[in-house]
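Handoff note, outgoing to incoming analyst
You'll be picking up this chain. Sequence as last confirmed:
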Amino acid sequence: MALNVKVLEDSFALVAPQGDALVARFYERLFEKYPQVEALFSGTSPKKQQKMLLASLVLVVENLRRPEVLVKALRAMGKRHLSYGAEAGHYDAVNENLLAVLAEFAADAWTDKVKKAWVDALDTIKTVMLEGASQKQKNVKAQGKIKKIQTKKEETNMSPSGKKGEKKKNTGTNIAQAALDNIAAHVIICDRDLNITYVNKASIKTLSAVESEIAEAFPGFSVDNIVGTNIDDFHQIPAKQRKILSDPANLPYSADIEIGPLKLELKVTANISETGEYIGNTLEWEEVSEKRRAAIEMARLKSSLDNSNGNVLICNRDLEIIYMNKASEKTLTRLAPEIKKVFHDFSVDTIVGSVIDRFHQDPSKQRAILDNPNNMPYRADIQVGPAILDLNVSAIISDSGDYVGNTLEWEDVTEKRQAGVKMARLKSSLDNSNGNVLICNRDLEIIYMNKASEKTLTRLAPEIKKVFHDFTVDTIVGSVIDRFHQDPSKQRVILGDPKNMPYRADIQVGPAILDLNVSAIISDSGDYLGNTLEWEDVTAKRQAEVEMARLKSSLDNANTNIMVCDRNYEIVYMNQASETTLSKLEFEIRKVFSGFTVKGIVGSSIDGFHKDPSMQRRLLDNPNNLPYRTEIAVGSATLDLNVSAIMDKDGNYVGNVVEWQDVTSQKQAQNEVERLITSASAGVLSERIDASVFDGFLKTLAEGINSMLAAVEAPITEAQEVLSFLSEGDLRTPMKGEYQGSFNEMKESLNKAITQLSETLISVSEGSDLVTNGINEISKGNEDLSQRTAEQASALEETSSSMEEMTSTVKQNADNAAQANQLAIAAREVAEKGGRVTAETSEAMLAVNKSSKKIVDIISVIDE
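Most recent structure output, in case you need it:
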């Protein structure tokens, strides 16, 4: 029987998203129609059994195209089911029930074709499982059926991306996706070789959002290529995680890992097949950078509250006190005797966990206030026995905007309020204040103006009159503030409710800018009596702030690394260039300062970056020491620092600005160039710069220097070899390389010298041969003369006739002597010519020496 794999895969993919509901319905219907089988499942929980059934269905559909795997798994299940008491009839009940439930969930998609495909498949599954149970056959019958599975390939369809020519993805993968893609959790699955085989939609979405950050840590990373990637690629020491994942007993395993600026929480579990085989891993992960940061921030906040001198209590939305800081505990312990007079069962030990209703006679009142976060912050004094407590309640709003509780800052103000009552009876000392103050009543009539206000308004009067033409300082007191507003209703709404105060705003009056701070005046009995207006002419200040904002914008976008610290040596500013450079150097800096993070720079003290903070404090304490420039080593990095003093307009020393740059590459390049100069000066031209360690201009420069040295070294090396041959008397080896300029001239001069020297030596050799021949002829003439002389002695009678012959011989000797003289002259000329050739050879060597000096000069210029 041939199974229709394509129909089986597609139809199961359709119902897989409802997998949990499908298997639950399966057992519900099974037990209704076949109650006798319910006893077979008494040894397991319904949830566990439903999960196992769904896993078995996925296993079957995913392995329809791998019959050898499927047969093995089904037979193993058949053997197990036999031990549960399963019989052949039970398989029929299961198949009938599963077909009915599949039809129910597939609805209109359940066609005769689909039904037939599932009937055939379930029959085959039944056969194989029964074979496994009976152990009578090995693989013959079922294997024959399974191997006949026909994968009916469809013609090319439109892919989800809409591109023709792309075939639909393996439906088995889609089945797994249907079960996992719609969950919010991030899931990645890998096989036993640690190759990633599946990434769900939530993972893809999150990874795509942080793709660039991951790519910085792992160059070449792409979300599109993550499936198929081996997880070793994401670990510096793959052996470590391989050791963990090699044994399922080590799992589940949880850990946090950092990838660049990201922090990921990982939970790895083992994937076990129906046969108990360890087949891979599932990785659930979450990007927890913000969560961890929030936890750290919360810990810092709690620590801050714990050690705060202010009294703080926190309650949840049920008004249950869930936190009390040490200051509160201390103050309440001191006040406990007084509080017990009102709340007799009061105990500091029972504060946390109690509801604040117990401290109010009418709890509904404060509940009405605290029910609405818009009522906060809310402040009030309460009397507890003789003690007066000042309460300030604020709403706690979560990051998602939810109202989650309240913070109560409180203070024992018994003495303060008593002093306040006395002070209320005294005339304010505002008249002598340098600050400008105006006071108005509830009708917004100005009833008081201090001297500072009168003085400032007199100065500003010409400008104010340009806007309010009838303005005079003399009529301020007694006038209503409505006259200074085009729309009086606006400020009346603000000042009508003391909850709106304090209220602060800048207003423009002609070219002048006034900073106003309005607060409510509340009587001892809590009545709203009026308002106090503190104001200041901030025209120059605001202009300075605008200028400062422009300056900050310029610094933010500057290419130069800039940081600013105040007089307490706390870093108060870092521009974008500094942040970018420090991010690149973060790893090196951590080697020296282990707790260093770029995000923690602003707000930290510069002392944290020095082994001896007192040294730089002595330097920076005196602005006369500045500007100060130095280089410091941080790990393998070299930083060039230039520190300047910041003076305010009055000449006060208010802080420091440091301009800095990472000069590691420049220093390395400088050292390399100096090394080459030293080597070249010593006559070693074979040294080179490793250009691969540089980028940009420095890499181009290094490659250029290397090329230049190669061009210099080649002719000099060849000239050295030729001269070495020459020194051994070998004139057959000239310079053959292709050179330009002075190097070509050197080549031509040396080759010409070798040629001329060779010709001279040939001439000398030929002259020597002539001299030898002449000497031989003279020797022969002398022998003839001796013989004839003897003959004359013996034969005087022949004297007369021999005189002529003797005369002839003497003449010939004279000719021979003259010829010998000519040969000597020729030999002298050859020798002189050899001297000139030697001189030319010397000049060629001087040219080589001169070229070497030029090379050193060129490298020196580059270094400068």
